Structure formats: C-alpha cells, structure tokens
Amino acid sequence: RSSNNLSAGLCYPHLGNSSCRRIVRPPSVYVLLYIILSSISVLTVTLNLLVIITISHFKKLHSPTNFLLLSLAVSDFCVGFIFIFEIILLDNCWYLSARWCMFFSVLCIIVPTASIGSVVLISIDRYIAVCDPLHYHTKVTVNRAKISVFLCWFCSALYTLVLVDHMKNPAGFNSCIGECVTFIHPVAIVLDLFLTLIFPVSTILILYVRVFVVAASQARAMHSHVAVVKLQGSVKVNKSELKAARVLGVVVVVFLCCLTPFYIVSFLYSTLSTFYFVKCLYYFNSFLNPMIYVFLYPWFRKCVKYILSLQILKSGSSEANIM
C-alpha cells in the first residue's frame, strides 16, 4: 500500500526514484485550477487578438501611440500561450520533450522582455506628448514608432540569445525526469535584474511622475482665470494627450503591480506554490490590459462591434470613422 502511495506521487511512476515528485492535490482543486487558467488563457489570446486586429485594420488608429499599444498587445497575445505550459506544470511535472522545455524557457524570456520594453516606449511617448506638445508630432512619427517597436523586439530576441547561451541543456541539468528547469549563470541573473526590473521600472516611474506633475499644473492653470487666456492654446493641444496619458497611466500602474511581486518572490526564499502564484499574476497582466482598453477607450468598444458583426469584411471598412 505504501508503495502504491509513493508511485501516485511521482510524475513517471514506472521510473521509480528517477522520476520527479508531483504535487498531489484534491481532484476538485485540479478541476478548478484547470478551468480558471484555461479560461484566462483563452480570454487573453482572444482579447489581445481583438486589439491586434483593431489597430492593424482601422487606418484612423494608425498613430505612433497605437503602434506601441500594438506591440504590447502582441506580447500579451503570446502570454496567452505561455499559460498553456503553466497548465501543464500544474502538478509540477513536465511531460513534454527537452526541446519544448527550451522553447518554453525562451518564450518566458523574450515575451516579458518585449512587454517591458513596450511599456517603457509608451511612457516615453506620453512624456513627450504631455511635456513637449509643440514638438511631439515632429519628434514622434509613425515611422519612428515602428522602428522603435522593431528595435524593442530585436533587442529582446538578442537579449534572450545571450541568456540562452548561458543556459545549460534543461535535460542535462534536471535532477530528475519530469522536470523543466533551466540554469542561468549568476552574472546573467544580476544583469537580468537590472535590465528587466531596476532600469525599466525607474525609467517608467520618473517619466510618469513628470507627466502627472505637468498634468496637475495644467489642471490648476485651467481653474485660474488669469492663466486660462495665456494657456488656452496649449490646453487645447494637450487635452486629448492628457486623456491618453491617464488611460495609459492605468496600464502602467497595473503592469507594475503585477510585475513587482514576481521579482520580489523570485529573489527571496519562497514556497513553490507562492512562486507559481506570483508568476501567474505577472502573466495575468496580459489579460487585464485589453480589459482596460474596453472600459476606458470608447473607440475600442466600437471596433469590437465592427469585428464581431463581421463588418470589417466589407470593402472600405478600414476607412471607417471609429473615433
């Protein structure tokens, strides 16, 4: 009987002591977790696909800011597939090949890195739009936004290749069969901490503090009868930009709230279940982003109706006035 209990707690019972131990949970808990994670995965892929189709299809939305949002939506779309691998690892067992393990490891680096880079670019875009509105349209163009997005993904891919070069073969490093663990050199870990947390988060916070300081000063100026005449032109220029800054500010705050716990837990001693929770919270941000657009962007809701009613299949639908 004790032998049967031991086998039930192994990823590959027929391999005996060579197999990794699996996390044993009540069947009802497994079913609940599978339903929750599967639903989040499907919704993350679907909602971000709607964002991708919306910004790509409607020409009225082909602005520098929206192309940066498109980059974020593509990375969030990919996160939906990362959730599939997380579902496989629910019982702490890897049932796929070593190549799939390496693919999963690479995906877990390149996608979040591109996502962080996209949020930094969005913060820079809002900073220029609010703090230097007169030169915004000359400094920030569609072509420059596209080049920035390309460089963001290229640098993410290059950075991933550098880290992967420091990774040992997952199958060779695993302590038992049924594990997907990649070893990264300690120097690479320190570099990763600086490049994916300290530097980008500091940049985002500094830029957005400046944005909201300027926004607050303009709000005070609008209530001042003396300043209204002097600032009337600049307020008119900045009104839509300030609204966009507020919406994207919500995106940035939610992003930081989901990102920070993951890194805190990663570098502190924690249980496997705690680490798994904060990792899913980190990925859950990709589900939240399109939800923010739904509630705060009227044009996005209008575009979703166009897509779901298949009106985008009509000729000339890309020219529709959805603003």
Automatic annotation (TrEMBL):
UniProt KW Cell membrane keyword: yes
Membrane topology according to the record: Multi-pass membrane protein
Domain G-protein coupled receptors family 1 profile: start-end pairs: 47-293
UniProt-recorded Gene Ontology molecular function terms: trace-amine receptor activity
Record flagged with keyword Transcription regulation: no
SUPFAM superfamilies to which the protein is assigned, alphabetical: Family A G protein-coupled receptor-like (SSF81321)
CC annotations in GO: plasma membrane
Subcellular location, record wording: Cell membrane
Keywords, comma-separated and alphabetical: Cell membrane, G-protein coupled receptor, Membrane, Receptor, Transducer, Transmembrane, Transmembrane helix
InterPro entries, A to Z: GPCR_Rhodpsn (IPR000276), GPCR_Rhodpsn_7TM (IPR017452), TAAR (IPR050569)
Leader sequence residues: none
Pfam families: 7tm_1 (PF00001)
TM helices/strands, residue ranges: 31-55, 67-90, 102-124, 145-164, 184-213, 247-269, 281-300
Domain of life: Eukaryota
Recorded family membership: Belongs to the G-protein coupled receptor 1 family.
Protein name: G-protein coupled receptors family 1 profile domain-containing protein
Provenance organism: Gouania willdenowi (Blunt-snouted clingfish)
